[in-house]
Automatic annotation (TrEMBL):
GO terms for biological process: mRNA splicing, via spliceosome. GO terms for molecular function: metal ion binding; RNA lariat debranching enzyme activity. The keyword Manganese applies. Its cofactor is Mn(2+); Zn(2+); Fe(2+). The lineage of its organism: Eukaryota, Metazoa, Chordata, Craniata, Vertebrata. The keyword Metal-binding applies. This is DBR1 enzyme. Residues 415-427 have a biased composition (Polar residues).
Length: 538
C-alpha cells in the first residue's frame, strides 16, 4: 500500500490534503494512509491556542477546527504523534490515543496500532532530561513551565515501548534519534548546516531516548520531523546472536508543510491484502499497557523505571503469548478501533471570536471508554482526583513562578548525561523570539536533488517526493563515493539546528566574539516561525 508521510504540518491541514489531492489528479497516486510526525496543532478554539507553547504573535487558528467541527473530513486516514508545538490541553485528553476528528487519529503519549496488517508505532513530544523521569502531572490551565513540560517525553513511555517483542514496521518520533546523522550523508549535512558541527562531533544532537528505542525496536522505517529539513539515513543493526537475521532501518526526517517545500514523502509498504481498511488496536501493545498499568505516575516526583539492578522485584514487563491471547479474547478477536469521536470543546467560530476563552481540564469519553474496556488508569481522572483533594500533585493550582534557567526547570540526575532533543541545552521553544531580527532565507534549508536521481515529479510540483525502494546510505560517509551513493538513493539531507555554543551566542550576544548586545534568536527559531509571515502556515 502507499503511505504518505508528512513532517510538521503546523495546523495547515487544508494545504496538506490539497497537496495529496493534487498528487492524485496529476500522477494518479492515491495514498492509503497519511502519517504526520508531530507539530500537528489540533487547535479547536482560542483556549487551545493559549495552550500552545509558541510566542503569542504566532498563535493562529489555521484550519484544523474545520475538521473538528465536521465542516470538512480528512480525505485519507491520518495518524499522527505530538510534537512540541501542540494544543497540549487537547492532546492530553487522549493519553492512550484517540480520534481528534473523524478520520484523524492521535497515537497518544506513545502507542502502536495496525492498518492493513502494517504495525505502526510512535512516541509524542521531545526529550528534555530534567522532565524525563517525572510523571504526567500537568493539566490546564498551564503555567510558564508546565505549558512546555507537558510535551516532554517521559521514561514510562519509553519503558512501555521497550517491552515490545514483535517486529515494528513503521515508527515515528518528533525529534531525531541521537547519532542517526552518522548513518547518512554527514559531510553534506555539515556543509549545509555548519552550526551543527559541535553537536554532531560530540554526538549530542537528537534524543537519546529515541536512539534507545531505535536500537531496541529496529523498525523497518523510522520517520521524524522537528528540525524542518529533510535528511535520509540507513542504519544496519547489530545482531544479538548468530541465529538472528540482520535488520536495518530506513530513516527519513521530513520538512515542514510549506508551499514549494519537500514536505511529503510517498512510500510503498508491504501489507496484508486480506486485512480490512479499518485502523486496529495492536494486541501486544494493549497487553503491555495492562502489564505496566501499576507504574502510572501523575506526580512531579522523579523516578526510574524498574531494571535488573537488585532494587526491583520485577523488571521485565514484556508480555506472553497467553496475555496477548487474552486481549484478543476480550475483544472477541475484533481489533477495530471504534469510531467514537466526540466533541469535547466548543469549536472556533470566525464570526464570533472569543479571545478570552480559558482552557479547562477535560476528561475525554474516548479515554474513559478505553480505560474501562482494558482496566487501565485514566491519567486525567487521577490528576483530577489529586486536584480535588488539594494535594497539588496535578500542578493545576495558581502558584508563583520560580526562578528558572532557560531550560525551564532545574537539572536533575538522569540516566542520560545530556539534555538534548535536537535543541541542545537551549530549547528554542522555551525562549521568546525577538520581535525584530534579520530574516532568514528559508530556501537555504533544502538540498537540491542529485542530478543522478532527479525527482519523480515535475519541478513545479515540489511538495512531494516518491521514496525509492531502498536508501543505500553508508555509515561511513567520509568518502566521495559514499556521498554519491547516498545522493543516488534519492535522500535529501538537511537539518536546522545550532550547537549549544553557537546558539547561546546568537541568543545573548551581539556578535561571535561574545560582545553583549540585543538578544537574537535566529536560524532555527525563525525557520520554525518566520514562514508564518510569508504564508501563514505557522
Amino acid at each position: 500500500m502507499k503511505v504518505a508521510v508528512a513532517g510538521c504540518c503546523h495546523g495547515a491541514l487544508d494545504k496538506m490534503y490539497e497537496t495529496l489531492e493534487l498528487l492524485q489528479r496529476r500522477h494518479n497516486v492515491r495514498p492509503d494512509l497519511l502519517l504526520c510526525c508531530g507539530d500537528f496543532q489540533a487547535v479547536r478554539n482560542e483556549a487551545d491556542l493559549r495552550c500552545m507553547a509558541v510566542p503569542a504573535k504566532y498563535r493562529h487558528m489555521q484550519t484544523f477546527y474545520r475538521y473538528y467541527s465536521g465542516e470538512k473530513k480528512a480525505p485519507v486516514l491520518t495518524v499522527f504523534i505530538g510534537g512540541n508545538h501542540e494544543a497540549s490541553n487537547h492532546l492530553q485528553e487522549l493519553p492512550y490515543g484517540g480520534w481528534v476528528a473523524p478520520n484523524i487519529y492521535y497515537l497518544g503519549y506513545a502507542g502502536v496500532v495496525r492498518f492493513r496488517g502494517v504495525r505502526i508505532g510512535g512516541i509524542s513530544g521531545i526529550f528534555k532530561s530534567h522532565d524525563y523521569r517525572k510523571g504526567h502531572f500537568e493539566c490546564p490551565p498551564y503555567n510558564q513551565q508546565t505549558i512546555r513540560s507537558a510535551y516532554h517525553v517521559r521514561n514510562i513511555e519509553v519503558f512501555k515501548l521497550k517491552q515490545l517483542k514483535r517486529p515494528i514496521d513503521i515508527f515515528m518520533s518528533h525529534d531525531w534519534p541521537r547519532s542517526i546523522y552518522h548513518y547518512g550523508n554527514k559531510k553534506q549535512l555539515l556543509k549545509m548546516k555548519s552550526f551543527f558541527r559541535q553537536e554532531v562531533e560530540s554526538n549530542t544532537l537528537g534524543s537519546p531516548a529515541a536512539s534507545e528505542l531505535l536500537q531496541h525496536l529496529k523498525p523497518t522505517y523510522w520517520f521524524s520531523a522537528h528540525l524542518h529539513v529533510k535528511f535520509a539515513a540507513f542504519m544496519q543493526h547489530e545482531t544479538n546472536s548468530k541465529e538472528e537475521l540482520p535488520k536495518a532501518t530506513k530513516f527519513l526526517a521530513l520538512d515542514k508543510c510549506l508551499p514549494h517545500r519537500d514536505f511529503l514523502q510517498i512510500i510503498d509498504v508491504e501489507h496484508d491484502p486480506n486485512a480490512g481498511d479499518s485502523l486496529e488496536y495492536d494486541a501486544e501493545w494493549i497487553a503491555v499497557l495492562k502489564a505496566t498499568n501499576n507504574l502510572v505516575n501523575v506526580t512531579q516526583s522523579t523516578w526510574n523505571m524498574p531494571e535488573k539492578n537488585g532494587l526491583h522485584a520485577k523488571w521485565d514487563y514484556s508480555v506472553t503469548e497467553e496475555a496477548i491471547k487474552e486481549v484478543l479474547e476480550e475483544l472477541n478477536h475484533d481489533l477495530k478501533i471504534p469510531c467514537n469521536f466526540t466533541l469535547t470543546a466548543a469549536c472556533y467560530d470566525p464570526t464570533k471570536p472569543q479571545k478570552n476563552m480559558e482552557p479547562v481540564h477535560t476528561i475525554n469519553p474516548q479515554t474513559t471508554e478505553f480505560c474501562a474496556q482494558f482496566g487501565l488508569t485514566d491519567i486525567n481522572d487521577r490528576i483530577q482526583q489529586a486536584k480535588e483533594e488539594g494535594s497539588g500533585r496535578g500542578e493545576c493550582e495558581d502558584e508563583e513562578e520560580e526562578e528558572m534557567d532557560s531550560t525551564g526547570s532545574a537539572e536533575e540526575p538522569s540516566e542520560y548525561n545530556t539534555d538534548n532533543s535536537g535543541l541542545s541545552s537551549f530549547n528554542p521553544d522555551e525562549i521568546m523570539l525577538d520581535e525584530e531580527g534579520g530574516d532568514e532565507d528559508l530556501s537555504t534549508c533544502s538540498v537540491d536533488p542529485s542530478p543522478d536521481h532527479p525527482p519523480e515529479f515535475s519541478t513545479g510540483f515540489s511538495d512531494i517526493r516518491i521514496m525509492p525502494d531502498s536508501m543505500a546510505v553508508s555509515s561511513d560517509d567520509a568518502t566521495d563515493s559514499n556521498n554519491e551513493e547516498l545522493e543516488k538513493s534519492g535522500g535529501s539531507k538537511q537539518v536546522e539546528e545550532k550547537s549549544p555554543t553557537e546558539r547561546s551566542l546568537k541568543r545573548i550576544s551581539g556578535d561571535e566574539n561574545g560582545n553583549t548586545g540585543v538578544k537574537k534568536i535566529k536560524r532555527r527559531n525563525q525557520a520554525i516561525y518566520a514562514a508564518e509571515d510569508e504564508d501563514k502556515t505557522d
